[in-house]
Structure prediction request, 373 residues.
Amino acid sequence: MAAVIPSQPTLRSDFFSSVSSFSGQDLRRSNRFSGSFRLPSAAACRKISCQTISAASPASIISPNVSSGKKDFLHLNDFDKATILKILERAAEVKAQIKSGDRTFLPFKGKSMAMIFAKPSMRTRVSFETGFFLLGGHAIYLGPDDIQMGKREETRDVARVLSNYNDIIMARVFGHQDILDLAKYATVPVINGLTDYNHPCQIMADALTIIEHIGRLEGTKVVYVGDGNNVVHSWLLLAAVIPFHFVCACPMGFEPGQKTVEEARQAGISKIEITNDPREAVRGADVVYSDVWASMGQKEEAEYRRKAFQGFQVDEELMKLAGPKAYFMHCLPAERGVEVTNGVIEAPNSIVFPQAENRMHAQNAIMLHLLGL
Prediction:
């Protein structure tokens, strides 16, 4: 019988002893956070106040933040290490407040968010909409047929119109240029909810989950097994900011973009490996990570990809090679029996569903940062 995944993470004994506790005031003052933190108490959460978090946000090598006077969340390496870790710490703080049942912290009260979905998604929609609501705001869903951005109306026009109605814009689109154009012309913060190139909100949730379960992100070994897709690109961009060991094991011809790999390596922060041998790759892993082999927009290639990816399924044997302390992660939706077995997803060391929950908490913290709250 498959084991039941616990609804809350089981934290290692050194998790709480690694650093001292913090409050919302500590978060705004301290630069000492280095990738491990204590989950705050509900009492500490009541100290949260709406003050601006200021941090340097260096321009991305891929795309500079073109709109002066506002912040966007487009690529993880648009931000420095201190800022990324502060956002993660804030995510844990606000998560604890929400889990406590305290509904007095409403920083988004009177604010609205436009959510553009060229690509549909359960997790992205529900996590953003529910998270924004729980903190007092109102989110507006704009589906694929509501705007047809770039077809019925130019992206630059959509950006300026929605900016006049809303305080923040989130977009989940196909082409990466769409999110860049949206950010260029919008006068309010823009969040990248996913593009074909990257998926930064997902990796922020993943980082929060790793810290909750392992006690740190720095120095861990994260092994991704599968297609070198947008999730891999975001892991690589995070590795250009925070030091850890990242390995992508993928079939030949399905490697991540060489430019992004080189960007991560040239940063000189993390150890980066791209390999075609998943069995060797997972040895000593803290986290084994998988994703579907055929993403949205690639379904016509599904059968071809299943053949090409033979030997890259994350099964019980591969997890044994990783070791007894290795966690399994998946950004979902999963095709059970294809890229991962049912047994691995349902095993006690699978943290897939806490990972999915953390989308909401990580995104709340991202929005608080962008809005200066």
Summary: The mean pLDDT is 86. The radius of gyration is 20 Å. Residues 24 and 49 are 7 Å apart (CA to CA). Strands lie at 112-117, 138-142, 168-172, 190-194, 221-225, 245-249, 271-275, 287-290, 327-330.
